[in-house]
Design goal:
The structure is a single chain. It is built from 8 helices and 27 strands. The protein is globular, with a radius of gyration of 20 Å. It folds into 2 domains: 19-199, Acid Proteases (Cathepsin D, subunit A, domain 1, Beta Barrel); 227-375, Acid Proteases (Cathepsin D, subunit A, domain 1, Beta Barrel), CATH 2.40.70.10. Strands 13, 14, 15, 16, 17, 20, 21, 24 and 25 form a 9-stranded mixed β-sheet that branches. By secondary structure, it is α+β, with helices and mostly antiparallel strands.
Length: 376
């Protein structure tokens, strides 16, 4: 009888978790390289990762050409489907609309308000600034379905124009998972509405990113999935509940401090593909691991050297998290690149997908903590 009770409890608990499968697709960089357009593209649209985190009253993003994880959501009655990037570094949901004529909208799914019986315009405009352009549009509300959860009256953006780089991305739009305090027009984020509407059992979502596999990655709403990590979860308090920002003590290689000397701030961001830091610190890390950096900030290594390259350790709130070379070097037909990106003069760090693939990440909205555990 005891085991039956335990089993029933486990079944009940598992039913409280809502899993959103993520697809690891082709990146914009890969698409552009295949078309022979990458060199021209990055000259015209330089990567400006820190623009996303400059608060100017509008939510900012940048053209990250290496994002590859997308999930499918639906909006409206009957539902219209869209692929979106689940972005813990922004707070708004937006998708292309039928009123958008930009090239980026023409090769993506567009939301058609007139086909949804539950759609309502709210009369406000929306502007999201990018590193090399912007998205402009309008706000409306409708039922949004994410991972089996139907969120009623969710306010979202319908784009009227989009920055050129979106044309080369597989995702149609963005679903922000940061805090309402940085949302454009103070829109309530999707996960906040899940909590308010009693749709999740815990005010947590967690992210698992698989490595080279096309499938297996997922966002879990309402808790954690222990099958994706090993050992205990280490909890780190947020230093700022705007983005998912925490304190970082140092970055070390072979016991030597190579960056973030004296401490710095870092943001855990599923919407950035690499690890970004101040340009001088990143150049130092790349030098330590034997990489050469070109004029665009791309750092390459000899693919045959990966086995002998050192691990890089990020100490967060007194806890060490080590990323091996096999995790921070990406290998493709075109060669091997390190996953360390230059962030200019900003002292802020972004721990993006390169870090999150190594560490299962739990985002606790209510307690305002980040949880990290070794991914399996």
């Amino acid at each position: 009888m005891k085991w039956l009770v335990v089993l029933s409890a486990l079944v009940a608990f598992s039913e409280c978790l809502h899993k959103m499968p993520l697809i690891k697709g082709k990146t914009a960089r890969q698409t552009l390289k295949e078309k022979g357009l990458w060199e021209e593209y990055r000259k015209r649209h330089p990567y400006s990762p820190m623009v996303k985190f400059t608060q100017t009253g509008t939510e900012s993003m940048t053209n990250d050409a290496d994002l590859s994880y997308y999930g499918v959501i639906s909006i409206g009655t009957p539902p219209q489907s869209f692929t979106v990037i689940f972005d813990s570094g922004s707070s708004n949901l937006w998708v292309p609309s039928a009123y958008c004529s930009s090239q980026a909208c023409n090769n993506h799914n567009k939301f058609k308000p007139q086909l949804s019986s539950s759609f309502k315009w709210n009369g406000e405009s929306l502007s999201i600034q990018y590193g090399t352009g912007s998205m402009t549009g309008y706000l409306g509300s409708d039922t949004v379905e994410v991972g089996g959860i139907s969120v009623a009256n969710q306010v979202f953006g319908l784009s009227q124009s989009e920055a050129p780089f979106m044309a080369s991305m597989q995702a149609d739009g963005i679903l922000g998972l940061a805090f309402q305090s940085i949302a454009s027009d103070n829109v309530v984020p999707v996960f906040d509405n899940m909590i308010k509407q009693g749709l999740v059992s815990q005010p947590q979502f967690s992210v698992y990113l698989s490595g080279n596999e096309a499938q297996g990655s997922e966002v879990v709403f309402g808790g954690t999935d222990s099958s994706h990590y090993t050992g205990q979860i280490t909890w780190i308090p947020l230093s700022s509940a705007t983005y998912w920002q925490i304190s970082m003590d140092s970055v070390t290689i072979n016991g030597q401090t190579v960056a973030c000397s004296g401490g710095c701030q870092a943001i855990i961001d599923t919407g950035t593909s690499v690890i970004v830091g101040p340009t001088n610190d990143i150049n130092n890390i790349n030098s330590w691991v034997g990489a050469s950096t070109d004029q665009y900030g791309d750092s390459t290594v000899n693919c045959q050297n990966i086995q002998s390259m050192p691990s890089v350790t990020f100490t967060l709130n007194g806890h060490a998290f080590t990323v091996p070379a096999s995790a921070y070097v990406s290998q493709s037909y075109y060669g091997c690149n390190t996953g360390f990106g230059q962030g200019g003069s900003s002292q802020l760090w972004i721990l993006g997908d390169v870090f999150i693939r190594e560490y299962y990440t739990v985002f606790d909205v209510q307690a305002q903590y980040i949880g990290l555990a070794k991914s399996v």
